[in-house]
Amino acid sequence: MINIKNFLKVIGGMYSTYEMKVVDNTLLKTYQETELYGYEKDYNELCELVELFMKEALPYRERELKVKKKEIDEKYLPEIKECKRLLTNTKKRFKYNLERA
């Protein structure tokens, strides 16, 4: 498999700095979108499972599931928020570099 970074270094003389940054940002954006999709998918699946188990659950079990939901929120929501922030910044950098290229 070809190493993208080495390939970009080889062809770097043929393209401007901004054109190279556009390529880098495109790769980074794709990676970050995939990471965000994974976190959101896992979070939504876990939340759906907790909600499913809460239906017609006994009161003590419902309390346990609410605690579990809170743990899931504490684990996934900051990660999702950070991924969205990074992705927004990457899109801004991409747009900036694309305009300069």
Tally of helical segments:
3
General form:
rod-shaped
How much is the average pLDDT?
Answer: 88
SSE ordering: HHH
Question: Unreliable runs, pLDDT <50, ≥5 residues?
Answer: none
Task: Tell me the β content.
Answer: under 5%
Question: What does this protein look like?
Answer:
86% of the residues lie in helices and 0% in strands. The protein has 101 residues and is mainly alpha-helical. It has one domain. The longest helix is centred in the C-terminal third of the chain and has 42 residues.
Search tags:
101 residues; 86% helix; mainly alpha; 3 helices
How are the secondary structure elements laid out?
Blueprint: H1 4-10, H2 17-54, H3 59-100
Give a quick rundown of the structure.
The chain is mainly alpha-helical and 101 residues long.
